[in-house]
Amino acid sequence: MNYYIPVQAKFWVGHIFAILWTSFAIYISVPWVVDLAEVVSLPFSIFIISGIAYIPGYMNAFLIISIISDKQPPLKEAYLEEPVTILMACRNEQGQIANTLTYIKSQKYSPDISVIIVDNGSSDKTTEEAENTLQELDLSGKVVQEENPGKFNALNKGLEYVETEFVITLDADTLLHSRAVKYLVARIITSPENVCAIAGSVLVRNSRETIITRMQEWDYFLAIASIKRLQGLFQGTLVAQGAFSLYKTKTIKELGGWPDAIGEDIVLTWNMLYSDQKVFFEPLAVAFTEVPSNLKEFITQRSRWARGMIEALKETKPWDQPMVYTKYLTGINLIMPFLDFCYTFFWLPGVILAFFGVYWIVGPMTLLVLPLTLISYSILYKYQKEVFKDLNLRVRKNIHGFLFFVLFYQVIMAPVSVWGYLQEWFKLKRIWG
């Protein structure tokens, strides 16, 4: 017999498990704390170990219990009658736009789908290619121009032309699974009235290009998906990402559209949560996006994400969120700069010292973080594999990418995130890319 466990119970059970795990970790790590204290003082020892072990361990423990207890209600798929608009802001996407529109045309969704493409100052023939493809595919839509730079400007321009109840944002390099729109719409009509957005599941389409894209395949497939599952369970998915998400058009217009921010989708989502509405995640609504294929592009993208998080924290304070779940979920972001700082300036030097036999920071005790990380990835892999099975997709083998992801992803990400925080702190020039 299946028993329903209320969300509130799942929330507190997860925290109890996390507290127990962290208490165990603290107990057995006392010798590590004492040894490091002989070098840097006891308070600083606790400060360092909290940032590289205790807090990450707590978060992983909470994540595991949350994922295990996550069970979404069945979708109402039988009678979907809601027409939708797909809104794309693009710039210099001449080589991508036709393929993206072709996948939109192939959607297994019987109600009307219209497309609004906003050309944000392209220097190539994006507009001509889009208009020709819309005509060739007999796809309802239009191309409009927005010369003011910035994705938020382009999206707000397109919003003026949206007449449907629901609008889906889609990046011009992102390809939809044939049932992606169907599952997004089905999820929102299945959800309570105060759910105003559904984040889709964005995965990597170009994972075979370089070791950087191979690594990102696992990042999207495991890490990002697991975090969105956690947030969706507690009714506060923190980013209805612009790459592929569905929104209630009325809600966006009431909030004044997309804000002037480098992380416009993050700030918009937090404003939705602040207005006492909810944002869910639908793992079956899958789209495949083009990710950075070299380290320079990856650093630019992820530092922009980190900067966007700081923008959201400045715009909407976690303690002002109306629900306890969203207070907690957005509050986690307050300690992310601390964790990234500790990883960058303590963990990485500690790894170097360990190679020379100096185990002040990195030693046997730090391995306590690994079991929970691997367990969470194993659980998520099982869930994601079931999703792929339902969609008639196959999980591609990518062993080298997985090893690189486990061993080096955080080594790259922590310094990159710190760089993003500094960009926002010093108000450096914004780059939309």
Automatic annotation (TrEMBL):
InterPro entries xrefs: Glyco_trans_2-like (IPR001173), Nucleotide-diphossugar_trans (IPR029044)
GO molecular function: glycosyltransferase activity
Pfam families the UniProt entry points to: Glycos_transf_2
Keywords per UniProt: Glycosyltransferase, Membrane, Transferase, Transmembrane, Transmembrane helix
Highest taxon listed in the record's lineage: Bacteria
Glycosyltransferase 2-like domain boundaries: 85-255
TM region(s), chain numbering: 12-34, 46-68, 328-346, 352-380, 401-422
Assigned protein family: Belongs to the glycosyltransferase 2 family.
Name this protein carries in UniProt: Glycosyltransferase family 2 protein
Organism per entry: Halobacillus locisalis
Upper classification of the organism: Bacteria, Bacillati, Bacillota, Bacilli, Bacillales
